[in-house]
Structures are given as C-alpha cells and as structure tokens.
Write a structure and sequence with these properties.
It is built from 14 helices and 4 strands. By secondary structure, it is mostly helical. Helix 5 packs across helix 6 and helix 5 crosses helix 7. The chain is globular, with a radius of gyration of 22 Å. The relative contact order is 0.13.
C-alpha cells in the first residue's frame, strides 16, 4: 500500500443495494472484494473491505485506486472504463468487465471465457424470446395445435401479435419489439419451460453446491472459528438464496399472462426491469466466493480460502426485507464480525503473483 492517508474506517450495513455497491472483478490482491457505488457528490466511490481483516470498510473516491496500490494493467483499464458508465448495476459492471477481459488483459483463459460468455448470453436471449412468443401464441389461443416445430409458426406468431395489438393499445411492430425487450430482461433468470438453466439459476445451483461442500468440510474441522465461519457464510447464503428464488418465482409468474405483462410494459417498463434484476443484485459477489472455494485444492488451502471468503461475504441490505415475505435475521454476519487473521504473505510480496494468477482464473470462471 502507498502513503495514501486512508479515511476513518466506517461501519458497513447499507440500507439499499445501490449503497452496498457492485463487486468489481479486480485481479490485484489488495483490491479483492472492492465494490463500486454512486458517490453522494459526483462519480463513483470505492468500497474496500478493511485490509486488516477487521470490521468496517474504507470509502474512497474512484480516482484513489492508483494512490492505494499498484493495480494490474487489467485493473487500471477496468477502473477507467467503469468511471465512464452512467449507472452502476451488476449487468453494467459485468458488461464492462467482459469487454476488458475480451482484450486479453487478464490472460488468454479470461479472454476466451469472455467471448464464450457473450455467445451464451446471446443464446439465452434468443431462447427466452422464442419461449415468450410461444407462450403468447398459446395464451391468445388462436391455434390450439401450435407447437415449436410447427412449419407455420412464423405466420401464427404474426397473426397472434396482430390479434393482441388492439388489446394492448399498440401496433403489431411495437408488440414484436416489446417481446424482444422482455426477452432481454428475462434472459438472466429464464422463463417457465426453458430447456436449459439461465445464468442466475446456474449461479444459484453453484452457490448451493458450495454451501454443501463447505458444510461437509467443516464437519472434519476441530477449530471453532472455522466451523463458525462456515455457519456464518452458509447462513447469509441461505437468506440470499431464499429471497432470490422468491424474486425469480414472482417475476416469472408475470409471464403466465403475457397480454397483461405487455400492457404493464407499455405503461411502466422500468418497474418490470427492476423486479427482474433483483436476483442479480442479491447474488452479486457470490460467484467469486464459489470460485475461491473451488480453487482450494487441499485442507490448508481450504482454511486460507475460508478466511478470505469470510471477509468477502456480501452484507444483506435492509432493502432485502422489502423484497420477500420472509423472516430475516438483521445481520447474520454480525455474529462472527471479528478480526479475521489474514495470511500476510501476499502483502509483503511473497504470493502476489500467485494470487493475481488465481484471480485471473476466477475472472475467467465468472465471465
């Protein structure tokens, strides 16, 4: 760390997800767990976990990165591009991170992963749009025998859109464009009947596997702190998963009446966009945690990974209580909020390059 005068450590229990910020996939070890959030004054803030391993965070201006540490070339380019985006959300940070990774600044593995992830997202959007169109045809009911392999599907889709347009109060072209836009909105969470999992359900499944692996590993541990950290991590994860799955179910339920959904989209698309984005906000940062655990190959590495993960567990903002009718502990992380005994080797240079290489592999996996 440079001679930057750090501000006082601030307690950290954000009220909203915007205040919590979005995880930025930096590869520099000192920037692990750093989040971006809108500044109260101008631009963006850095929200950096307490480097000592204790409670609280540092809140710095976005331009303080170079004064705080010597970032990798990838991180410098990533921070410069993020500084130009008009709004901070998991989707926008992910898009910018993929663009930078696709240029090869975090290695060939991350470059290829970023390119493949863009193709996967495009396929998810195409599949979701098609399924929404199929549902609309079935719900309108002009054709009882309509199916995905019907050779006249294009004609039937056009007639269905023409039939529903007066009911929605829009033109057929507007209906077609709206269905494409809804396909983009629903693609991350998917719709009923989707043959493959979309990105958010895939992340939910991965997080459940990680919690199961952590629990099995903890049963063999004798140190109470290790068991306690696993309990805390899994408690926060279970709260997060419960709210995310409720949000997915509520959002997907809107597609049961697509004519009504299209009318809501005509009146107030922003509300639908925000509802569909809630699971992504909830799960932001958990994919990195899952891959940190996956990188641990032996018991010593698992203990080191556990301590790192305990520091990175996302705090659930109070806003989460408004998103689901669930009884939530105010802050399950607080029960184990104590100084975490970090391994200091990387701070003295002993493991910096190993950690950068690991972080680049994690970046490739999270693309």
């Amino acid at each position: 760390m440079s001679d930057l005068r750090l501000p006082p450590i601030q307690p950290y229990h954000p009220t909203t997800f915007q205040e919590r910020g979005v995880l930025v996939p930096f590869t520099t070890p000192l920037l692990g767990g750093t989040r971006a959030r809108p500044s109260e004054k101008f631009g963006l803030d850095l929200v950096i976990p307490n480097p000592s391993g204790g409670p609280g965070v540092y809140i710095l201006s976005w331009t303080s990165i170079d004064a705080l540490c010597r970032p990798t070339i990838h991180d410098r380019q990533l921070s410069e591009r993020i500084a130009t985006i008009p709004s901070v959300a998991p989707s926008t940070i992910r898009r910018v991170a993929r663009e930078v990774a696709a240029e090869g600044l975090a290695g060939e593995e991350a470059r290829l992963a970023a390119l493949n992830a863009s193709d996967t997202d495009k396929n998810d959007r195409t599949v979701t749009n098609f399924l929404l169109l199929m549902q609309l045809i079935q719900q309108v009911g002009l054709f009882r025998d309509a199916g995905p392999s019907d050779p006249d599907m294009e004609t039937r889709a056009r007639l269905t859109v023409a039939r529903i347009a007066p009911r929605v109060g829009r033109s057929p072209d507007w209906i077609a464009t709206a269905l494409e836009a809804l396909g983009d909105v629903f693609a991350p969470i998917g719709v009923a009947g989707q043959p493959t999992q979309s990105r958010v359900p895939r992340l939910i499944a991965m997080l459940r596997r990680t919690c199961a692996d952590l629990t099995i590993w903890s049963r063999l541990q004798q140190q109470a702190d290790h068991v306690g950290y696993v309990d805390m991590i899994c408690a926060v994860a279970e709260h997060t998963l419960a709210i995310a799955e409720t949000g997915i179910a509520q959002t997907q339920a809107m597609t049961a009446n697509l004519p009504d959904l299209l009318m809501k989209w005509a009146r107030d698309p922003d509300t639908i966009v925000r509802l569909a984005a809630r699971p992504e906000w909830l799960l932001d940062g958990w994919d990195q945690i899952c891959h940190i655990w996956d990188e641990a190959k032996d018991d010593a590495a698992c203990r080191a990974a556990l301590i790192e993960i305990a520091l990175l567990v996302p705090v659930l903002p109070r806003e989460a209580r408004d998103w689901a009718d669930l009884e939530l502990e105010s802050d399950p992380k607080a029960r184990w909020r104590r100084t975490i005994p970090l391994n200091e080797d990387w701070r003295t240079g002993g493991k910096v390059f190993e950690l950068i290489a690991r972080n680049e592999r994690i970046l490739a996996a999270t693309c």
